[in-house]
Amino acid sequence: MPKPTTRSFRLGVAGPVGTGKSSLIAMICRELADELRLGVITNDIYTDEDARLLRSAGVLDPERIRAVETGACPHTAIRDDVTPNLIAVEDLERDFAPLDVVLVESGGDNLTATFSPALVDAQIFVLDVAGGGDVARKGGPGIARADLLVVNKTDLAPYVGVDVPQMVTDAEAARGGKPVLALSRTDLDSVAKLKEWVLAMTEVVRSGHHTPVDPGPMAPHSHVGDDGVLISHTHAH
Ligand SMILES: Nc1nc2c(ncn2[C@@H]2O[C@H](COP(=O)(O)OP(=O)(O)OP(=O)(O)O)[C@@H](O)[C@H]2O)c(=O)[nH]1
Ligand SMILES: [Mg+2]
């Protein structure tokens, strides 16, 4: 199988279970499908539930949404051995060339799962207010180093007793000034800010001016080479 001729901007979306990762991807597709050529890869442990949910949302051609059933903890599939995901991304890039952005949803995990830079160029980490206002202070690689931290479902804050501005301030302190976005699907200004961030990051990555987050050593992984043969390697970037 030939290598994809064009490479997309690969954007990872990670975060604890149920914080709204699939919903955020659906939102990005709904907002940007007219401006960018998009594809989606979802990671579930045992099902293709997330891919089916996204297909049924009707925000993107269903064929552009594919599931990788990891059968393992999400961390393994997005960080330790990214090969099945990388192959899924490259297949999508080949089948729908050219794609501008491929969104990769991690399976829901705890605070430690982040994407290897071998798989994605940039990553969003999603928390929600229902997980508690103090989660932002707890840190971890996703909270501290993701390119964007989303504090999601702010519409629920009054019901769970969370002070959103305080949670955002705590998150900013844990991130040394990297961006934090308070988001709710009911707050259209926040949805517009998410859209702006994705468009701006797409430009930065395209121009080659973005350094991927790498909280650890690059995982060994495999690509399909020009001649269709699997090449396994590690590299330093
Ligand atoms: N109130 C409120 N609920 C939301 C919002 N965004 C998502 N949800 C709800 O949160 C629940 C979980 O959303 P998902 O998008 O499936 O979350 P996820 O992180 O993809 O879940 P997993 O893939 O299972 O880890 C669903 O019931 C959504 O409808 C929001 O802005 N406000
Ligand atoms: Mg999901």
TrEMBL record:
Gene Ontology MF, one: nickel cation binding
InterPro entries for this protein: CobW/HypB/UreG_nucleotide-bd, P-loop_NTPase, UreG
Residues that, per the record, bind GTP: G15, P16, V17, G18, T19, G20, K21, S22
Domain named CobW/HypB/UreG nucleotide-binding: residues: 12-181
Main location: cytoplasm
Keywords, comma-separated and alphabetical: Chaperone, Cytoplasm, GTP-binding, Nickel insertion, Nucleotide-binding
This protein's GO CC annotations: cytoplasm
Domain of life: Bacteria
UniProt keyword Cytoplasm, yes or no: yes
Stretch list, region Disordered: 212-237
Subcellular location: Cytoplasm
GO BP field: urea catabolic process
Annotated signal sequence range: none
Tagged with keyword Cytoplasm: yes
PANTHER family assigned to the protein according to its UniProt record, in alphabetical order: UREASE ACCESSORY PROTEIN G
Oligomeric form and interacting partners: Homodimer. UreD, UreF and UreG form a complex that acts as a GTP-hydrolysis-dependent molecular chaperone, activating the urease apoprotein by helping to assemble the nickel containing metallocenter of UreC. The UreE protein probably delivers the nickel.
Function comment: Facilitates the functional incorporation of the urease nickel metallocenter. This process requires GTP hydrolysis, probably effectuated by UreG.
Family, per entry: Belongs to the SIMIBI class G3E GTPase family. UreG subfamily.
Name of protein: Urease accessory protein UreG
Organism in which the protein naturally occurs: Kribbella qitaiheensis
Lineage: Bacteria, Bacillati, Actinomycetota, Actinomycetes, Propionibacteriales
Gene: ureG
